[in-house]
Amino acid sequence: MARYRGPVCKLCRREGMRLGLKGSRCDTGKCAMEKRTTPPGGGPKKGTRRRMSDYGVQLREKQKVRRTYGVLERQFRHYFEEAERRPGITGETLLQLLERRLDNVVYRLSLAASRAQSRLLIGQGHFAVNGARVTIPSYLVRAGDVVSVCEPSRNAPPIVEAVSKAGTRRLPSWLQTEADAMSARVTALPTRAEIDTPVQEELVVEFYSR
Q1: Residues 6+ apart with CB under 8 A from 39
Q2: Which of 15, 93, 137, 203 is close enough to 103 for a disulfide, judged by CB 3.0 to 4.6 Å?
Q3: 176 pairs with which residues across the strands?
Q4: Beta strand pairing status for 132-133 and 146-149?
Q5: CATH topology of 8-98+198-208 equal to that of 101-189?
Q6: Domain ranges of the chain
C-alpha cells in the first residue's frame, strides 16, 4: 500500500494550518505549528514575498484536501474523475467520496487517533463492515453499513486509548454509535454541511478544469 513516509509536520507547515495528521498531539503545545508557522525550505526573504497566482491558490487547496485525507495524487485524481461522472456538484461529491473511505470513518468514530493510524489498524484486520473483516482503507461505506471493531481486537491498546479520548472529537451526524462504542451505523451519506473539513472544494474543481 503506497503512502507518504516523510515528516507529516512539514505538510501542516506547508499548508499553513493544522491538518490533524498526528492525532491529539496536534491540539497540544507540542504541535510543530506552535513553534514554526513558516513553510519548510526557507522561503523568500523578507520584503520579497509575491502575491500567489490563481494556479498557486488552487494547487494549495488541492494539496490541503489530499493531505488531510492521506491520499496520494493518482488516487486523488481518480476520486475527482469519479465525482465528475456522478450527478450533483462535483466538489461536494468529491468530499463525500473521501468522507466515505473506511479509514476516515474509523477516524471520525474516534476508534483511531489519526487517519494514518486508522489505515494501519484496518490493514492489520482490526475492523469489519457488516460483520465481514475489511483490510482495505479505501473501502467506501454505504448508508446502512455497520462498522465495528472485530471481537479479538476490542482490547487492542491503540483502539482502547482512542476510545478513551473520544469525547474530544465531534461525531458527525451521519454516523451513530452503538452502546458499546465499538461499532457504529452509517445512517446516511454525508452532506456538505456535515463535513467540517475547512477547504474550498470549488478551487480543487478549478484546478483540474484548467
Answers
A1: 13, 14, 16
A2: 137
A3: 185
A4: unpaired
A5: no
A6: 8-98+198-208, 101-189
Residues with Cβ within 8 Å of residue 84, at least 6 apart in sequence:
90
Handedness of CA 194, 195, 200, 201 (dihedral sign): negative
Q: Among residues 207, 205, 186, which one has the least CA distance to residue 92?
A: 205
Give the predicted TM-score (pTM) of the model: 0.80
CATH class assigned to 101-189: alpha beta
Write out the CATH class of domain 8-98+198-208: mainly alpha
Eight-state DSSP code of residue 185:
E
Distances (CA, A) of 174 to 34, 43, 105, 132: 33, 41, 10, 21
* C-alpha cell of residue 131: 460483520
Helix and strand numbers (H, E) in the chain are 8, 5
pLDDT for the residue 32: 53
CB neighbour burial string for 133-142, b if at least 16 within 10 angstroms, e if fewer: ebeebbbbbe
The residue type of 75 is Q
pLDDT score of 48? 47
The three grid cell numbers given for residue 130, joined into one nine-digit string: 457488516
Provide the grid cell at 8.
Answer: 507529516
200: which 3 cell numbers?
474550498
Q: Which of 22, 3, 17 is nearest to 115 (CA)?
A: 22
- Give the model's pLDDT for residue 99: 97
